[in-house]
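Morning. Coffee machine broken again, so started the prediction first thing and wrote up yesterday's gels while waiting. Chain of 868 residues, entered below exactly as on the submission form.
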Amino acid sequence: IFYDEDNVATLIIREVFPEDAGTFTCVAKNIAGFASSTTELTVEAPLSDHGSDITGLSRKSMSRESSLADILEGIPPTFSRKPKATCTPEHTDVELECRLVAVPEPDIFWHYNGKEISNTDSVKVDTYSDMHFYVSTVKISDVKKSQEGVYSVIARNREGEAKMDLVLKVKTGLPEKPQILEPLYDITINEGETAVLSTQISGEPQPTVEWLKNSKKITDIKTVVTKDGLHSITIDKPTPRDSAKYTVIASNKLGTAQTTCFLAVEELPGPQAPLFIERFQEQTVKENGTITLMAKVTGNPIPTVSWFRNNKPLLASSKKKEVFDGENIVLEIVNADSEEDAGDYKCVGTNTFGTATHGARVSVDVPQVKFTRPLTDVEVDEKQSIYLECETSHTVSTKWQLNGKELTGMDHRELHQEGRVHRLIIRKSTILDSGKYTCLVKDQTTSSNVIVHDVKAEFVKKLEDVEVKENDCAIMEVEVSSETANVTWHKNGEMLTDGMNSKVFFEKDGQTRKLIIRSISVHDDGEYTCSLGDQECTAEINVIELAPQIITKLKDQKVATGEQVLFEIELTKGDALVKWTKDGKEIQLNNNVRLTIDGKRQKLEIVKASKTDTGVYACQVHEQTCTAKLTVEEPRASFVKKLPDITLAVQGSDIKLTVELSKVDVPVKWLRSGKVIKESDKYEIITEGAVHTLIIKKPTTSDEAEYICTAVNVKTSTKLKVEVKEEPPKINNIEKEYRLKNGEDLIVNVTFTSTVPSTAEWFVNGTVLIKSNRVSYSVNESSASLTIKKIEEADTGVLTLKLKNIYGETAANIDIIVIKLPDEPGIPDIIEITDTSVTLHWKPPQFDGNSPIVGYVVEYHDKDEFMV
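Came back before lunch.
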């Protein structure tokens, strides 16, 4: 018997004898309980003893008890299987039987209707055993109807207790409604496996049985019925479509009974190349120790597994053991030797759909090792390769360092090992590779001073002219002979800097140097120079100017006479020539028709519209034109009271915008920056006859905008300006004290109000806190937070938060207290002794550990326990 770390237990019977046939139960046990699994072994014929060192012996001649006892200290009683319900005619003899395994021998009890069964003339309880396998029976002679029901068997030993119920059905020949003696059970199987669903049913007259699948009658599957009332169906080669709820309904003239189960058919995975789902890691073992490499691989079909050492197949030997069960892979090598067993191990899984490989280095640690061939100093010119090589007395793993810093071999420096030889290779060296290289193993070192001579850098590839469209990205690049050489960039003789104007950037990648200009414009057109020492190369960037485009187009409008009209466009360029027309004729500007140009935005304003202004307005830029229709109508209402041009509000104080119309029952709309305002926590809309009011609650600078009130086809507007209160931040409720245990995290959150952005500083006992891995803090418009991870004694004291804005500052203190262990209480004094009690008195500890004492524990000990 053996088991591995993947919780796979294996029992191997080296030679099988006829008497080995029977029920085998595997029991897994831990402090939480146990679980078991049972199987039947059938021996078809005795095996030949040819090749066995022991001849003429049966299995019984070997001590199974001693081998089991060596492995298991104890097994709780475990039933090997649950028997079917027993049906028997009245006045016949019947036997109920159970089988179980247990170590040590269990006590077995039978119960019926809650009472223990004792031996009588007609009822006999018997138990016999074969080593640790037990069979217990109840034999009932001349059984009666009154004796049917559920019989319980209980087995108990020092390891635990188990219980199993057995159903006894006694048939009298009298009419009975159907009864489910053994129900259907849920089953989960893989696609293609055979599923057998069975149930045991009794009834008189014999019930008719109907099978349903998802509530529909089954007609395409043959049912099997035995004389014991066992009904079953067999589903051969099921697919996931067979997953369903299966129900059996039994009926006769006295009633019905039914039982249900769920069959789950899991789809088999399709063809899959091997994949390692668990991998072994690099490891070091002691000389003469054991190397264990474990992995898991999946694949369909199941892959074959091969092992390699230093890229050569691993040959079989008496010290090597390979295990593969279709998923779990184990390689075990005992008596590890540094010369024979150290190296790079690789496991390869292969099937018809692919190959997967995983490897790791295995080192064998020897007591003593030394360098038999040390490193030598090296001098090379830049771009040449560097080869460092040394040799050890044994095949062991080494470490490499450059100027005391360990090298991983994951960069341009390559680390190699071939047996005892260790190499470090640097191809195309640079002056940054100069330094002291050290190879280390145990307490032995060998070093090499490497000098890389700087070679004058030159242009390998020079600048070339670039033609690029406006708004695109322009890239100019050169290639130099040195990866460490720096270059400078100039435009028309003026030096450029990285990040200049948030659009000019430099890039350095190996020997390539790039100048990148994003969102290029015609102003970037010119001559560019790249300088490398005293060398220069020059090229031009030619920017192809794009025609201006209209981004924001005109929109149709409908206004009342006397109202303002505003047509607005946005262009891609601010210096574009724009032509405005009405009904195909160019517009002449005057006091009533104005044109405003603000960079890329142009506005055509009609101060007071009249019906003659009705028409189609057009804006033409280059070859692009956009149009909009203006309709001027007679006003259907008028504002008796309009909004002012500008409304001033104080931050934090509600502001009312009020208008009055010439008519009542005329609905209005309120808009903010062209978007309709709806009532909310922020806005309240009030209508009282012809008076309409918009209340903006607690306005801030973010509420500054143009507010419009529209009624039918007339409107009025105002621009809201919010004046900021000049006052320092105000701290709201704050927790004055925090008590924590040593090692807990301190999290403080403080809310405040401020009319302008604020900054926060935190202090402990007057010393400012600096952000670190332990300390973090943040502040937003209304709260400041602080986190100190794993609080320490040094963090105790007064924690101060200082909030500051442009109008002043405010501060608050918080006490930070770390809870400690209290001092010892005083020695108990006996105050009074009676026959039933003792009264004790003691003084409380001088220091309570910064937390109130909540209780004491009084222990009683025998006086001898304190004697040494």
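The helical segments are 64-71, 338-341. Going to sketch it on the whiteboard this afternoon.
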